[in-house]
Design goal:
This protein is an alpha+beta fold. Helix 1 crosses helix 2.
Length: 157
């Protein structure tokens, strides 16, 4: 179980779960060759805006890099790693209609995608945005990313 501002890795036949993805994003990395898997639950897009930051997994920029490093140390093959993401919801309506402020969920999704592009990790699928929270499960046997949400059908990407 990966918790908010946390990351974990595992190998088949295990799976990783994170609950409570609202505006947070769950970044799933998977190596289909070695079946080493990783899941990060990031809360914010950019660690450079925070002084004295010690929680690497809290941010898209540092959390994804750390997750990748941990997976390689566990035997993942860098060239075969792929990604899927979920979360980044708009959980609360903006107070002022027409406000130009950008939603934190949108920013988290954009920052996650930018970091994956920078690291040249292909993004295979996503289930992001909208206005509801998600629980996700990453199956290390096959790379399935299972998304559950209250009142919604279970989705596998």
């Amino acid at each position: 179980m990966s918790e908010m501002a946390d990351l974990k890795i595992c190998k088949a036949p295990d799976s990783l779960t994170t609950i409570g993805l609202g505006s947070c994003v769950g970044i799933a990395l998977y190596d289909p060759i070695t079946k080493v898997s990783g899941l990060a639950h990031i809360m914010l897009p950019d660690s450079t805006q925070i002084k004295n930051n010690t929680v690497i997994a809290k941010f898209a920029d540092t959390g994804i890099t750390k997750l990748l490093d941990d997976m390689i140390k566990a035997g993942a093959r860098r060239p075969s790693i792929v990604a899927k993401i979920a979360g980044g919801a708009r959980m609360f309506a903006l107070k002022s209609p027409g406000s130009s402020s950008i939603n934190i969920g949108d920013r988290n999704v954009a920052a996650s995608k930018a970091k994956l592009r920078e690291l040249r990790i292909p993004l295979l699928a996503e289930d992001t945005g909208l206005d509801y929270g998600r629980t996700v499960v990453l199956d290390s046997n096959n790379g399935d990313y299972i998304i559950k949400a209250v009142g919604k059908d279970v989705k596998t990407i």
